[in-house]
Write a structure and sequence with these properties.
Layout (H helix, E strand, L loop, with lengths): L23 E8 L5 E6 L2 E8 L3 E8 L5 E6 L3 E7 L20 E8 L3 E6 L3 E8 L3 E5 L4 E14 L4 E13 L5 E6 L2 E6 L4 E15 L4 E17 L4 E5 L5 E7 L4 E2 L5 E2 L7 E7 L4 E7 L4 E5 L4
Parallel strand pairs: 2-6, 2-8, 3-7, 3-9, 8-10, 9-11, 10-11, 11-12, 12-13, 12-14, 13-15, 14-15, 15-16, 16-17, 16-22, 17-23, 18-22, 19-23
Antiparallel strand pairs: 1-4, 4-7, 5-6, 18-21, 20-21
């Protein structure tokens, strides 16, 4: 299970500013193209994103105690909004967000719905709704992330925060350490990874599915394309697979010490010792479904077609 968790890297920028008073209101607007690249950085508090049809970004909210300033740099095609702390001038790029003296800052943004977004936080929560057409990259250490969008590419990383995604995306990549992942109405490809958090994935039809965990449980409840490839792997977590109709697929499941339950095929158990194995072909078998867990159970069920 190589490269299970990608490192969360944040970039700091030089600044010169006067410290802001506690809970300083924010009221700003800047021109922003519909397909612009917008980067937003906050340490603690919240980043909340709404959408509209105007070619500008409106920024409201409040700056927290001991925040030096809200730095805005760039133009209508590429803009960065960053909360700056009192020690940012002396910190390296790996130390961005390490200043615990800053109070929570709430950034509430209204942006063109097709903008490309990068949202980076430490302990701030991220919420975005109504985005349609742009790529989305969201990263947080301990804040929860909730995204509702239609996008060609979704990339979300969290350490201890939970991740929620709903909508459609060409490619979805979500990584957590201890946070839970829940992604619904997923798109063409989905790659989800967690160490101890549970992963719930639904929707489709999906062409490629990858779900990996160490101790978290895996839940897939959705549809697959006729030539799909689905791999669900866990060390000690259970695997739950629910398909709305009999898949035209080769279905393989193995567990070292757990049980396997399936409405399709015959589960083989060794005469002596633990473990179970299932290897069956359903229909044409063009799709490939592989389920592996070391000490967890595998539960395969027939869903209901809507």
């Amino acid at each position: 299970m190589n490269n299970l968790i990608k490192p969360l890297l944040f970039v700091a920028f030089a600044l010169v500013a006067v410290p802001a008073m506690a809970d300083t209101p924010i009221h700003q607007s800047h021109a922003l193209d519909p397909d612009a690249e917008l980067t937003v950085r906050n340490v603690s508090g919240a980043i909340i994103v709404h959408t509209w049809d105007r070619h500008e970004v409106r920024i409201t909210g409040t700056l927290g105690n001991n925040v030096r300033k809200l730095e805005i740099d760039g133009d209508a095609h590429e803009l960065e909004i960053a909360v700056k702390g009192p020690n940012d001038d002396d910190s390296g790029w790996l130390d961005w967000g390490s200043d615990s003296s800053m109070g929570p800052t709430t950034l509430e943004l209204t942006v063109p719905k097709s903008v490309n977004l990068e949202l980076h936080t430490v302990s701030a929560r991220i919420e975005a709704d109504g985005l349609d057409g742009g790529e989305i990259d969201a990263k947080s250490v301990s804040g929860n992330i909730t995204i509702k969008a239609h996008s060609p590419d979704i990339d979300i990383d969290s350490v201890s925060g939970d991740v929620r995604f709903s909508g459609q995306a060409g490619e979805i990549e979500i990584t957590t350490v201890s946070g839970d992942i829940r992604a619904g109405q997923a798109g063409h490809e989905a790659n989800t990874q967690s160490v101890s958090g549970d992963i719930h994935l639904s929707g489709g039809p999906l062409h490629e599915v990858s779900m990996e965990s160490v101790s978290g449980d895996l839940f897939f409840d959705g549809a697959l394309t006729a030539d799909a490839k689905a791999d669900l792997h866990s060390m000690s977590g259970d695997i739950h697979l629910t398909l709305p109709e009999p898949p035209q697929a080769t279905l393989k499941a193995t567990t070292f010490s757990g049980d396997i339950r399936s409405p399709w095929g015959k589960v083989n158990e060794p005469e002596y010792g633990p473990g179970s194995k299932l290897d069956t072909r359903i229909g044409s078998g063009d799709a490939r479904i592989t389920l592996k867990t070391f000490s967890g159970d595998v539960d395969i069920r027939k869903g209901t077609s809507e």
